[in-house]
Amino acid sequence: MDVVALASSPAHPSLLPEAWAMLGRTDLEAYTCWDFPSQSDGHPGAGDASFNGVTPARCAENLVRRYSRPGDLVVDQMAGSRTIGDVARALGRRAVSLDLSPRRPGIVRADARAWPLRAESATLVVVDSPYSDNIVYSRDPRCLGRISCRDPRFIAEMSRVAREAGRVLRRGGVLAWIIADEYRGGVYTPVGFRLLSALEREFEILDTIALVRHHDRSASPMWEHRARRFNFFLRGFKFLLIVRKPVGDRGG
Q: pTM of the full predicted structure?
């Protein structure tokens, strides 16, 4: 018997339909630490595991299922290998994937600070952005991955991306942003906290998730040895910042 049938079953008159509907969501993450065994876990055809900084497919699934419904529009404006769009379509959502340097068919070329989408058209926006200039994503001078997170322009430009997300999101829509801190050359930069502070100016904070990192270049015995020898910490997780566009105007 399916969930809909159970919800109306006379054998369980004291349970609300919503309670029975939740039986179909028991595989969603319930805690604030998300740890997936591989990039493609659960969605083997989504994205490209060889792409630098690729989004875990199960992370995308959790966000899409929690914060949108079938038929809703999901937007990823830094699409990379298009994991988020692939997962959203597989779950019955409409999806738009944008990127300054498209690497796969179906990704629209666009700057993350100027989307070719009408206002208040999306229910969910997912951003998996560069967190500094440590990876070369594109030679295009507009690429935000060319700006160091230590440069004040970094948060300023990411704030422009956030404002564009706010324009495209419906009221009450959710913005989920994946980003990491940086430790380089003996200097720690708290990128996640700085971005969250910027997002709070225009969005309501829902929660912060620790998204465990796997298979990055620092996950090796050599780097573990260096971290212990020189007394620093390797990045073990990324931040997943979940915020919501206010339903009403935010008065001062």
A: 0.86
Q: How far apart are CA 125 and CA 172, in angstroms?
A: 12
- Report d(CA 244, CA 166) in Å as an integer: 9
Mean residue pLDDT of the chain comes to 87
| DSSP strand pairing (122-128 vs 169-179) | parallel
pLDDT at 244 over 50: yes
* pLDDT band at residue 43 under the 50/70/90 scheme: confident
- State the Cα–Cα distance between residues 202 and 200, nearest whole angstrom: 5
Condensed to tens digits (0 to 9), the pLDDT of residues 9-30 reads 334 455 566 555 655 678 899 9
Which residues contact residue 218 at a Cβ distance below 8 angstroms, ignoring those fewer than 6 apart?
234, 235
Q: CA torsion angle for 238, 244, 249, 251 (degrees, to 10)?
A: -50
Residue 203 φ/ψ, nearest 5 degrees: -130, 160
Written as one letter, the residue type at 94 is: R
Burial 112-131 (b: 16+ CB within 10 A, else e): bbebebeeebbbbbbbbbbb
Reply yes or no on whether the pLDDT at 208 is more than 90: yes
Domains and CATH numbers, the chain: 34-244 (3.40.50.150)
Q: CB-based contacts of 167: which residues, under 8 Å, 6+ apart?
A: 115, 119, 120
What is the torsional sign of CA 237, 207, 92, 88? negative
Count Cβ atoms below 10 Å from residue 40 Cβ, excluding itself.
Answer: 18
Give the H or E element holding residue 170.
Answer: strand 169-179
pLDDT (0 to 100) of residue 220: 78
Q: Which amino acid is at 68?
A: S
Read off the tokens for 135.
């990876």
